[in-house]
Amino acid sequence: MASRCIVRGSINVDEFFHVKHIVYPGETISSHELSKRAGGKGANQAVAVAKAGASVVLVGSVGEDGFWVVEYLKDSGVDVSDIQTVSESTGRAVIQLTDDGQNSIILFKGANYSTHPKKSIPSGATHILLQNEIPFNDTLAYLNAAAEASLSTVTIFNPSPMPSNVEIKAFPWDKLAWLVVNEGEASNLYQALSNGTPDIPVPDCSELACANLSAYPTLVQLSSQIPKINIVCTLGAAGVLALIPSLRKTTQVSSSLHSDPIFLPAVKLKNSVVDTTGAGDCFTGYLVAGLMEMHDKGAKVLQRQDVIYILKRCVQAAGMCVEKRGAMESIPLARDIV
Ligand code: ADP
Ligand code: NA
């Protein structure tokens, strides 16, 4: 059976107001340009999975003002048959953007927080991808349903925006296979989970390149709290660091970790950085598509070289994403990755 990914997540209209400066309290200013784009982390990541060449359905909600977004998602290759229309308006990000690149953002949850009738995991789902821009209980319901549906359903969680400490502690970590974070999120999660317990000793890093990364000790500490979960930590312009305990053990691990860390530097850009919005979502979507590809090849247990192959493509795709304006629009197609 070919892999199919379910994304239960957010759909937004991102409204960019181009302004001379961010508006002050009590001030009225006019915007010299207004642009609208489809956004939301659920939608961005679903588009990334689709553009990476994998089969994906997005379960979410829009208002009547969001039909064009649904059309855009459909054109990008996402199955939109489980996107419902509700009476609330579509989720919104109102973004003030100055010429020198500063921004300020107001988020409106809108339709993303409405009740969705689909509570069970559609049959044929092999991978479940979740973020945190819908009600936390809906995210939990999908994780629980995935665990009930099949032990082999692969679950991936990108906890963005960060859940509260209470939510982090109550999270069913035993039902999660893959966690995708940036360095700040890794640190926040560790603080919440460790609750002041002392840090464990950090083993020397076998890969010289990661010995200097501040994210390395952070990930080791986080992994000590959730030792079975594969953690992929994006490092912006520095690349990615991953701790993958589920790897097939072929060689002796050189430290007390379950497996040696994997570090890949970011790609050297051909052009300058234009817009990093959505780079993390592009990365996450390509990661899931990569896992799906391995699944379709029949790989039951991932090997180290499989993960390196997948992460290389993620880094290449995300690198291309930062060279173009926009989030979804800048996610490259698999065939265009060089
Ligand atoms: P987030 O926005 O979620 O915090 P990151 O900033 O870590 O995500 O970026 C995700 C990925 O995008 C990185 O792992 C890297 O591969 C790529 N990336 C981000 N910024 C750059 C950059 N300046 N040059 C090359 N690649 C980049
Ligand atoms: Na971009």
UniProtKB/TrEMBL annotation:
Gene Ontology MF annotations: ATP binding; metal ion binding; ribokinase activity
Q: Which GO terms describe its biological process?
A: D-ribose catabolic process
- Broadest EC class? transferase
Major subcellular site: cytoplasm
Looking up Gene3D superfamilies in the UniProt record yields:
3.40.1190.20
Q: Whom does it interact with, and what assembly results?
A: Homodimer.
As for family, the record states: Belongs to the carbohydrate kinase PfkB family. Ribokinase subfamily.
Name of the protein described by the UniProt record:
Ribokinase
Protein's organism: Lentinula aciculospora
Q: Taxonomic classification, please? A: Eukaryota, Fungi, Dikarya, Basidiomycota, Agaricomycotina
